[in-house]
Amino acid sequence: MEAELTALAASGATAFVGLMATEAWNQARGRVARFLARGEDSEAVDAELEESREELIAARRSGDEDGAADVTAEWRIRIRRALRENPEAADELRGLLDELAPLQPAGTTVSITNNTISGGHYNGPVLMAQTIHDGVHGAARRQGPGTP
């Protein structure tokens, strides 16, 4: 269950931060602030979101990819904590993400900055991808007689 909440928190942070740098942020910001406030002062959370937005825009303008990734990481951690404290909020977050999906810019990509595998023993690389075609990432498939 922890892994599922962690993945959901990462999806939420990626979606929220992805929207911050778009015109759609004005439509999404209030809903995001209310979700994140979870009964606290949503105006204070709204102010934090705006500060993060300014940091994100400044980082992207200066080409500071680490700074932009830091904004996402901060919100991922915060969302994960909120989900740990209140696992019932997971359904609410899923609903919010579904609601915000049409506002996401086309071609949005997800960047995983930290991935942990625990348990077991791995003697080779572990690949993590959204989509891998033809069983080999980046390999062209040959067509024609005698091609497997």
Beta-strand residue percentage: under 5%
Q: Which class of secondary structure composition applies to the elements?
A: mainly alpha
Number of helices: 5
Question: What percentage of residues falls in helices of 4 or more residues?
Answer: 55-70%
Low-confidence stretches at least 5 residues in length (pLDDT < 50)?
132-142
Largest sheet descriptor? none
Shape: globular
Please tell me the overall pLDDT: 79
Strand elements, count: 0
Give me the strand/helix succession: HHHHH
Rg is: 18 Å
Give the termini separation. 40 Å
What does this structure look like?
By secondary structure, the protein is mainly α. It has a domain at 2-103. The protein is 57% helix and 0% strand. It has helices spanning 2-20, 25-37, 42-61, 65-85, 89-100. Helix 1 (2-20) packs across helix 4. The termini are far apart.
Descriptors:
mainly alpha; globular; single chain
Helix-strand layout with pairing:
Layout: H1 2-20, H2 25-37, H3 42-61, H4 65-85, H5 89-100
Helix pairs in contact: 1-4, 1-5, 2-3, 2-5, 3-4
Protein name: CchlP
